[in-house]
Amino acid sequence: MTDTSPSTTPDIENAQTDTAKPGKRVAFLVAAEGIERVELTEPWSAVTDAGHEAVLLSPGTGEVQLFDHLDKAETRTVDQAVGEVSVADFDALVLPGGVANPDALRTDATAVAFVKEFVESGKPVAAICHAPWTLVEADVVRGLTLTSFPSLQTDLRNAGAEWVDEQLVVSGNLITSRDPDDLPAFTNALLEAVNHGVSSAHTLSEA
User: What is the pTM of this model?
Assistant: First the structure.
């Protein structure tokens, strides 16, 4: 795993249970469909189990459709439209994957602007699988190191990032992983960043 910034002492075992600063709000931004179910539900459950508030954002309101790869799964109700919220309302942002989800999200100017502002705020932004497509569209990966589903590597390199094939990469305030198999490491790093700040999550990518 890759870390590209200074680190502090890790506490991996407590990453999912340390709620010394409870009550934080974590935004999950998705399109209307094509969301890889476990890439939303597993980090969501980890965030809420740790005592934080998870908020589902999308370009529109109503229901969004989750998938198990190509098969329809459950639906989830959007809490707020992304155009109705501010980066200041949240402490971290999660971008789940699935192919169609980020492919649609990156065509929505309001969603892309929100992602860009969130990254530029310095707050943690966690993107898994195909989700870095939206980061590319927001032009926030230049000079950073990321991982993703392998098919995105050329897009990320063309956008100025260094791409590596590792289960977890923390670079700047971006946390990235490749696919659902990497969810344990991805979720650990997300919670470490929420609980202690993104600088603390860098230690997990060195493990």
Answer: 0.89
Torsion region of 99: left, alpha or beta (phi above 0 gives left; psi -120 to 50 gives alpha) = alpha
Give residue 23's pLDDT. 86
What are the residue ranges spanned by the domains of the chain?
Answer: 23-206
CATH architecture of 23-206: 3-Layer(aba) Sandwich (3.40)
Q: DSSP assignment, residue 142?
A: T
Is the CA virtual torsion 16, 75, 56, 185 positive or negative?
Answer: positive
Low-confidence ranges of the chain (pLDDT < 70): 1-22, 207
Tokens representing 103 are: 């492919």
Q: What is the dihedral of CA 135, 63, 83, 40, to 10 degrees?
A: -30
Q: Could you tell me the CA-to-CA distances from 37 to 4, 89, 91 in Å, in that order?
A: 29, 25, 23
CA–CA gap between residue 30 and residue 172 (Å, rounded): 22
Beta strand ranges found along 129-202 (DSSP E): 145-146, 162-163, 169-171, 174-177
Q: Which residues are catalytic?
A: 129
Report CA-CA distances (Å) from 84 to 62, 109, 110, 184.
14, 14, 10, 31
pLDDT at 1: 63
